[in-house]
Amino acid sequence: MQNVTHVFLDLDHTLWDFDQNSCITLQILYQELDLEQKTAIAFEHFFETYKKINAELWKEYNNQRISQQELRSTRFVRVFKALGSSISSENNVYLSHEYVHRCTRIGKLIEGAEQLLEYLQGKYEYHIITNGFNDSQWAKIEHSNLKQYIKPEQLTTSEQAGAHKPDKRIFDYVCKQYSVSPKNCIMIGDNVDTDILGARQAGIKSIWFAPHETEKHSLPNIQITHLNQITHFL
Looking at the structure, do residues 45 and 122 belong to the same domain, yes or no? Predict the structure, then answer.
């Protein structure tokens, strides 16, 4: 793509396999706490509900309706409530803490993530822009193969920037760091409502990574289903 010198990338669901890492971690904790026996809820049903509730909570967080602490401390309570059950406060505290600690250390990546970063090296400046939290996002990089491609200074979280995607201020913050014009940047991400809309509002081109979408969306400049397709455009 003409005039692009800087590539911005989302982390969760784009490079780092959030769903797979979450599933592995929660399955271990579910067994460890004997939750299937205590609640009579199969793990598969629990996990599908967790994904739905967690996505709703992140939407609330991105829209600044809840805090980081509220997201982390209430998500499992809400999951079990949605399932018509409950969890003890002790198990909730343990599950909430151990989930964050252990999940960031699993390190499964989206297929093609390493190859994409290898391709970008030496061709473009690249930077991670994430709405995730400082204490977990770098741990995800450090405990995965991403650490050989990404340095701490190549990561910006919404906490650092003081704004969440899709707020254009987080993109402006990174552009200022690199002294680059938005017209020379492109954003790659999986979330239309944060990554793609935010890039559009900041005057930045975008590539929407949508592996499960069959219909075209009008907002991104480019839409792909696999990360290896990006090399056709950059």
Answer: no
- Assess whether 135 and 85 both reside in one domain: no
Q: What integer pLDDT is reported at residue 16 of this predicted model?
A: 98
Range of the domain at 12: 6-16+110-232
One-letter amino acid at 164 equals H
Q: Tens of pLDDT along 37-72?
A: 999 999 999 999 999 999 999 999 988 899 989 999
Q: Which of 85, 103, 121 is the last residue of a domain?
A: 103
Residue 135's pLDDT is what?
Answer: 85
What's the per-residue H, E or C state across the chain?
A: CCCCCEEEECCECCCECHHHHHHHHHHHHHHHCCHHHHHCCCHHHHHHHHHHHHHHHHHHHHCCCCCHHHHHHHHHHHHHHHCCCCCCHHHHHHHHHHHHHHHCCCCCECCCHHHHHHHHCCCCEEEEEECCCHHHHHHHHHCCHHHHCCCHHHEEEHHHHCCCCCCHHHHHHHHHHHCCCHHHEEEEECCHHHHHHHHHHCCCEEEEECCCCCCCCCCCCEEECCHHHHHHCC
Please, what are the averages of pLDDT over each run of 10 residues along the chain (234 residues)? 94 97 97 94 96 94 90 95 94 95 96 98 97 92 97 95 95 96 98 97 98 91 97 95
What is the predicted pLDDT for the residue at 120? 97
Instruction: Report yes or no: 24 and 190 within 8 Å, Cβ to Cβ.
Output: no
Q: Is residue 171 part of a domain?
A: yes
143: in domain: yes
